Amino acid sequence: LPRVHEAALASRSAVAPAVAARPRRGYQGPRLRVLVVDNEEADRELLVDVLAPLGFELRTAASGHDALDLIAAGFRPDAMFVDLAMPGIDGWETIRRARGFDASMAPRCVAIVSANAFDKRLENDVGIAPEDFFVKPVRHSELLDWLERKLAVRWTDTAAAPVVAPAAPPVLVRPSPEHLRALEEAVGLGYFRGIMNQLDAIDAAQPECAAWTAAQRALARQFRFEAMDCSA
What we know:
By secondary structure, the chain is of the alpha/beta class. The chain has two domains: 131 residues, Rossmann fold, CATH 3.40.50; 51 residues, no CATH class. The chain is built from eight helices and seven strands. It starts with a helix and ends in an 11-residue tail after the last helix.
């Protein structure tokens, strides 16, 4: 019997110690862009405080429309975290429209962040699986695990270099008054093909307006004609 007791003790002592959690102070590779969309400032800042020190380039938006405007202006997020209950368009519609952008502009992956755990079980048409759903308050480790899976992030134990503040966006050159009036007429009619034809004509006549026309095309594809900048 003593020998059996000694064997049991030896067996317990041979169990491998628990593996310590990997330190995650930065990551390898190019900087990744993250867009946080939430009408509550405290909730936006919580995610920023977690991700910014790791080297992610962060943008925040207080509404779905603000988020879509950021994307239309050229900020292409690698990951987007979206609250569901927001004034104006809700999180589902925000995701739907964000994924309607060209592939070069749409977010690579999207997650829901909601205070309502019931929402996790809702069926949806925007491809959000249960694993893409976080209940507030978000667990930091789960957030980072999700980014690792979705973006193949390779963490390091070396502190990330400070993210250089992005350069100011280029000044958008607007077309001539004649082109603006023709575009405004097409927008007033709500004629999608006519709007696109006018934007193509502007590109051909004034190549320096390419950034401006790209932003207007993005809005037109979402049928946000009222947001288009076409007043002469």
